[in-house]
Amino acid sequence: MPATEIAPLRIGDLVIDPPILQAPMAGFTNAAFRQIVRDFGGAGLLATEMVNARGFVWLDENEAEHPDRLWGVADEPRPLAVQIWDNDPETMAKVGRRLVEEYQVSVVDINFGCPVRQVTQKAHSGSYLLREPQRMHAIISQLVEACSPTPVTAKIRLGCHPDNINCNEIAKVVEEAGAAALTVHGRTAADMFRGNADWDRIGEIKSHLKNIPLIGNGDLDSAEKVVTAFEKYDVDAVMIARACLGRPWLFAQAAAALRGEPIPPEPTLIQQRDVMMRHYQLVVDRFGEEKATILMRKYACCYAQGKHGARFFRTHVAKVSTAEEFHQVVQEYFPVAVPEPTDSRSSQPAPENG
């Protein structure tokens, strides 16, 4: 149970309760996934996949359909954040304004944390910009002006490299430029997702902020860790990322723990399979069976992760290309039972663990 009552998060005039955020994750946090998270509850603020601002402008100017990453945004419940990335202040401001006026989003978030080469080295965006505080300031300040009164937030990493950690300096820049909140992932860009998130460094950033809230992100894969983050580190909210992809009920578990209530148990394996199939149907409804089946392969692997026989299931589901094949593989190979203890005297090999 939390030692003290956890206050709601305030991002500008927006109140986020509980102060648990779903991270924007490219290729994963689309409208179908967000709906599954809402079904369970517990997430105070959901976010889209990150949107390439320059690509959005091109589609707009050529009267093409807006990016699939904005699927569902216009109609789904609020609050909802859309995360965008680029390195040009004017482009970012233009897209931010469109998101506010046309989509009525609750928050416009700026990605200064993505470590992927395509975004950093090729586009000089994402975490690459941590080495250019002045450009970050220009991007944030112009976006804040364009989006007003909708709040603008920023997500960063500790720095570009372990030898160049500048998150405290960057935090000041973010606040001075007018951002309404700062999210920090506790690794550097060079770390990618290796090692452990440094929550001590995340907590230290709070003393470098005057008025805006600090949101901590990294390695939060249990309700207990979420409670610890609030109790041990000076953060105003937390953001859950990779751990929720196969466990969308994690937000509800964390929210209950913050309220001091018993943590809801994990759904049974059969229930988890059913959640995955509902997720699949939502994707089919949007993209049709062929495209949805391809897209669902990676989600299916997430749902099976850590379960007995997961590797065997992944091997088969990675090859499906039709709805019939998907249903058959799930029916035959998705882990729905806990194996009986193996007799140590048996000459048969123990089943493989994924």
Describe this structure in words.
Its EC number is 1.3.1.-. This is tRNA-dihydrouridine synthase. Belongs to the dus family. This protein is α/β, with parallel strands linked by helices and about 350 residues long. It has two domains: about 250 residues, Alpha-Beta Barrel (TIM Barrel); about 60 residues, Putative flavin oxidoreducatase, domain 2 (Non-ribosomal Peptide Synthetase Peptidyl Carrier Protein, Chain A, Orthogonal Bundle). The chain is built from 13 helices and 13 strands. The strands form three sheets. Strands 3, 4, 5, 6, 7, 8, 11, 12 and 13 form a nine-stranded parallel beta sheet that branches. Strands 1-2 form a two-stranded antiparallel ribbon. Strand 11, helix 7 and strand 12 form a beta-alpha-beta unit. Helix 1 packs antiparallel against helix 10, helix 3 runs parallel beside helix 5 and helix 10 runs antiparallel to helix 11. The longest helix is centred in the C-terminal third of the chain and has 19 residues. The two termini are about 30 Å apart. The C terminus is likely disordered.
